[in-house]
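Hi, here's the filled form for the chain we discussed.

Project: internal
Contact: R.S.
Residues: 306
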Amino acid sequence: MSWKYIAPLRLPRGHFVAIIVGCWLLAIIPGVTFAQGTGEPATETEPAPATAPAQAPGDDAANEASTPDAAARPATLFEKLTAGNMTWFMLPIVIASIIATWFSIERLMVLRRRTVIPYAFVTRFLEHLEQDRLDPQLAVKLCEENGSPIAQVFAHGVRKWGKPSVEIEQAIIDGGERQVSNLRRHLRVLNGVATVAPLLGLLGTVVGMIMAFDQIAGGTAMGKAEQLAGGIGVALLTTAGGLTVAIPSLILYMYLSGRVDILVMEMDALAQKVVGLISAESIAERRENDRPSRKKAKDKVTAESA
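And the returned structure, exactly as it came back:
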């Protein structure tokens, strides 16, 4: 008899959370278009002074050639970053977003309740223990076949079948700590991404601001407010990218940590039930309670035979 639990094919709510967060994290990947106008050259020109002579067509062409084309300005996030030499600061942030998305989806899959605490297995296992339909060897075998975290915790306790409750509880605590460590695996990655991503963005912003003020000191941006503002704007993009990665990573870290805490409390409550069924004290108590009924049945058989 195999007690492996096969969960029905249902899409958990965590998948929807992962999809939404993944889209949010990937929003910093190049391709987002900014509304900067159509880039068409201006057709209206300032009226020439009344005393100025009319300009020849060749002069108009020369003036248009000397004026920077608005369409040449970067219109996408990728173009802005490459134009501002911020690629090397955004690349680690993009990599951090991919790492956070990967481990978020992995943890959402692993921390499903029916994966950690299969309802069908737990219900049947406890029922059979209450009805004395299991022996230690069969109970350990069933737990190992199931393989879920709660089954592994049960297995550590069942191996101490008939021992004092203190000894069984200690065995369950030892096994439970290993399972909790497995449940919390990779959560530090999300916490690390949430901490480091804003710092990377801030570093890029500081470097970009230094470059912008170097242009002022060198005179290359003197009198060109648009060029200076554009440099500062590109520098601030790295901070925006870092926060875009850090905020959902922190939210997921807090959500998954809370889910682990809830699962651990449920596992502890179920483990206490197992201790109350297989400890030496509980076995002796059940035997003591069953003694009057066995004596009564024996007397009844003796009376019938007489």
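Let me know if anything looks off before we file it.
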